[in-house]
Amino acid sequence: MDKLIEELRNWGADTDGGIQRVMNDEEFYRMLILKFADSPEFQSLEAALDRGDRKEAFRIAHSLKGASANLSLTPFCRAVSDVVEDLRRYSAGGCCAPSTAGTGAAAQGSADPAARTEETPGGRADRASDAEADAALELHLQQYRMERDLLLGLTKKYAG
User: Fold this and answer.
1) pLDDT digits (tens, 9 = 90+) for 41-79
2) pLDDT for the residue numbered 1
3) Domain coordinates of the chain in residue numbers?
4) Distance separating alpha carbons of residues 96 and 92, to the nearest angstrom
5) 3-state secondary structure of 38
6) 135 within 8 A of 128, measured Cβ to Cβ
7) DSSP code string of 70-133
8) What are 104's strand-pairing partners?
9) DSSP code at position 30
10) Any idea what DSSP says for residue 22?
11) Do the Cβ atoms of 78 and 13 come closer than 8 Å?
12) Residue 116 to residue 141: CA distance in whole angstroms
């Protein structure tokens, strides 16, 4: 067995599933892993985050999530999935985007308590504060970066 694939398996990747996905062609799977590790999207995600462009960061993270899922890179996929969900809250107008929920008569008068929201003095729906959401994103980014660095370190070590 290839050393890179063995190390990925030890890391927690479902390499057997990944190899099956490419018609049991271990060499092709290895090549796909190395191409993924060489993706400019790792740097693009960091650049988008540095610019505060959470919508673009969401798009890039979602792409990394899909590619890592297809390659069965389970630890990385889990970590980037958490980042995607945190960023989805920002990009989809969730808890940390300006909210109009609860301002209309229909929302306030709804018989369903889940449909009603209370407005905070800052004008945001009372679900989760910006600080809590930012803290969750930062925690998930730390985990993502740790898994990314482990993956990139393994691929660099066995690229030759």
Assistant:
1) 999 999 999 999 999 999 999 999 999 999 999 999 999
2) 80
3) 3-158
4) 9
5) coil
6) no
7) HTT-HHHHHHHHHHHHHHHHHHTT-TTS---TT-SHHHHH-S-GGG--PBPTTSSBSSS-HHHH
8) none
9) H
10) T
11) no
12) 32
Tokens describing residue 159: 């690229």
Q: Is the pTM of this model over 0.85?
A: no
Residue keyed to tokens 């809590």: 132
In the chain, the amino acid numbered 65 is K
Return the pLDDT at 80: 98
Considering only CA atoms, which of 83, 28, 18 is closest in space to residue 57?
83
Residue 9, token pair as written in the block: 């398996």
Q: What is the Cα–Cα distance from 33 to 136, expressed in whole angstroms?
A: 29
Q: Are 14 and 157 in contact (CB under 8 A)?
A: no
Q: Which two tokens stand for residue 114?
A: 């889940």
109-133 pLDDT per residue, tens = 434 444 434 444 455 454 557 888 8
Report the first-to-last Cα separation within the chain, whole angstroms: 15
